[in-house]
Structure formats: structure tokens, C-alpha cells
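Postdoc handover notes: sequence design on the structure in folder B. Input C-alpha cells:
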């Protein structure tokens, strides 16, 4: 199957590794790119392996082998229809090489300039705003309720949740 394209498989959140195990048992060629991240727990620091694309993994299969894939526990759907939305073998190989060579790959938080967000931590927890800039931290403009006044604040991406991505709509 060398050079055959990969399909993205949407799976239930936090079940990527379990779905990968089910696919391995069914002899389905799959790839779940994982990155290592240090996480501070209350009593210690641990290193966790997390999916680079949360909620997704990649599979290669012939058209007649679709049923064992979509019937695996935790699988939601195969993205695309047939030849559309495929990921090239070269792209998957680049990800594999980058991860094994020590490149720091991290999931894209999905934030773009123009994305409506809600602060979920910190002093402005619960406030809604719009992303106006992206650097190491995210610049969010927050409008005062019932007022024409607004201000910007820099926030860590982890402290924000997407309400609506205006760029894509």
C-alpha cells in the first residue's frame, strides 16, 4: 500500500488510543500521531502522550474494507467521500519523521483572528470577546456589556474556548 493516501477517521474524544487498539486487532493500517507533554498534577509532574489531532487518527484501507473500520468501537465516521479529503502519504511521513526527530509539534488550538471566544479561567472568566491577534499568547478584545467601550487583554490559549469561528462562517 506504499504511497496510498490516508483517510482521516473521526473518533470519540479521548478514545483515540483505544480505537487504534481495535484497528490493530482488525489488521487495519492506522496511524495515531502522539506528542509528549509534561503535565503538573497535584502531587507530581508526569509526561503524557497526547494525540496531535484530538478526536482523529488516520487509516489506510481499500474501499471494500470500510466495514471493519466504521464498526470499531469509538469510531464516529470516515471523513470525506471516496477520493476527497485524503491525506497524502508524504504528509503522514513528514509528521512521523518530525515527531521521531524531536520536532515540537502541537495541536492547533483552532484560534484565528476574528474567532469569538469566552474566557474560561482567570480574572475575566466568563467574559466573551473576539481574537484580534495571535502571538505566544492570544490578544482578545472584550467589550463592556451595554457599552460601546472595549479593551484588549492577552491571554493564554488554554484559558479560552471557541464560541464561534467567524472566519469559517
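Designed sequence:
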Amino acid at each position: 500500500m506504499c504511497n496510498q493516501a490516508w483517510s482521516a477517521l473521526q473518533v470519540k474524544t479521548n478514545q483515540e488510543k483505544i480505537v487504534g487498539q481495535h484497528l490493530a486487532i482488525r489488521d487495519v493500517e492506522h496511524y495515531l500521531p502522539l506528542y509528549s507533554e509534561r503535565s503538573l498534577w497535584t502531587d507530581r509532574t508526569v509526561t503524557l502522550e497526547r494525540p496531535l489531532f484530538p478526536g482523529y487518527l488516520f487509516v489506510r484501507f481499500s474501499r471494500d474494507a470500510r466495514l471493519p473500520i466504521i464498526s470499531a468501537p469509538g469510531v464516529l465516521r470516515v471523513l470525506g467521500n471516496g477520493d476527497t479529503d485524503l491525506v497524502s502519504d508524504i504528509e503522514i511521513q513528514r509528521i512521523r519523521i518530525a515527531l521521531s526527530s524531536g520536532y515540537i509539534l502541537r495541536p492547533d488550538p483552532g484560534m484565528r483572528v476574528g474567532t469569538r471566544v469566552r474566557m474560561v479561567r482567570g480574572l475575566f472568566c466568563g467574559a466573551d470577546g473576539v481574537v484580534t491577534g495571535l502571538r505566544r499568547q492570544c490578544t482578545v478584545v472584550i467589550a463592556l456589556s451595554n457599552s460601546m467601550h472595549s479593551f484588549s487583554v492577552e491571554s493564554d490559549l488554554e484559558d479560552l474556548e471557541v464560541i464561534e469561528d467567524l472566519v469559517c462562517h
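Context for whoever picks this up: The first strand starts at residue 6 and ends at 11. Don't rerun without checking with the PI first.
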